[in-house]
Amino acid sequence: MIKALVLGASGGMGYAIVKELSNRGITVRAFARTQSKLEHLFHDDPRVSIFAGDLFRIDDLSAAASDVDIIFQSANLPYPEWEEKWGQLITNVVSATKKQEAKLAVVDNIYAYGRNPGRKVSETTPKRPHTKKGKIRLESEKIIKESGVKALIAHFPDFYGPNAKSSLFYYTLKNVVKNKNTIYIGNPKIARESIFTPDGAKAIVNLALNDEAYDQEWTIPASGVVTGEEVIAMIRKLTQYQKHVTTITKNMIRFLGLFNPMMREVVEMYYLNEDTVVLSGEKYEKHFGPVPVTPYKEGLRQTIEFMRADE
Fold first, then answer.
1. CA 105 – CA 215 distance, rounded (Å)
2. Is pTM beyond 0.90 here?
3. Alpha carbon of 241 to those of 15, 144, 166, 246, 295: distances in Å?
């Protein structure tokens, strides 16, 4: 019987991967730093055991990885910690995977591709990162590929969905569910691609359970692109929300960055609100069939429902 370890299990994609594995009857160990968060999310799931630990303690990772067959790396760090810590995090994950002789499935983003190359981004699109964080992610890919570990890397667009508390949509929705004035980060007229985390979880689990998917990269698209105006209109229709929505511009974020280290880092990635980057699912579809997709309206409905139940 397959056993899996999910790192970053209290985050949006990590949570979705744990639930997807459990729904398939797979025994899962959910790893994150905070015990109380893990207990809150998974206390009622008999297929899930929890392990609170530190990704920067190799003993914690090795203990969590004991007897597992696949490790899902979905852990993240706050932007201000990336430069100092991201490389060490990936090195530790690779070391624990190698020690256990397990396989590694990595949740990655699109930062390493850089600005929109003018067409759909695929596995063969050259990576030309122009940001500090894009270069860091590209370096982590190199660490994984040179490690000798049997690994796959799945590139996703922005996330949204149940428990995805660092997503752009979450910052809009958290006040919607409280019926307060809210914000939308970025130009609401520009279309962006955001993937519903349960869809992303289905895709990466499909990959991870197939030996042919390893030692390769995969791009996993969403159900299309959507503008901020369309998102807000869907939210209003789903919730009868009538409060004001303020647009947060790049200059506003830059000003906040004078006082907040996190906002200083967010400015660098604002290009994703200006240039639409869209992923191709052609390779995935060729090998595994249709990419799992949920229409934005239904994904938003399920996300709002989760947030209301979690208040």
1. 10
2. yes
3. 28, 45, 22, 14, 20
Q: What is the pLDDT of residues 270-307, one digit of tens each?
A: 888 888 889 999 999 999 999 999 999 999 999 999 99
pLDDT in tens, 52-101: 999 999 999 999 999 999 999 999 999 889 999 999 999 999 999 999 99
Domains in the chain and their CATH numbers?
A: 3-159+195-222+277-293 (3.40.50.720)
- Tell me the C-alpha distance between 115 and 19, whole Å: 33
Tokens of 246: 């303020």
39 contacts: CB under 8 Å, gap ≥ 6: 50
The residue written with tokens 């990162």 in the block is 129
Q: Which residue has tokens 């660098």?
A: 268
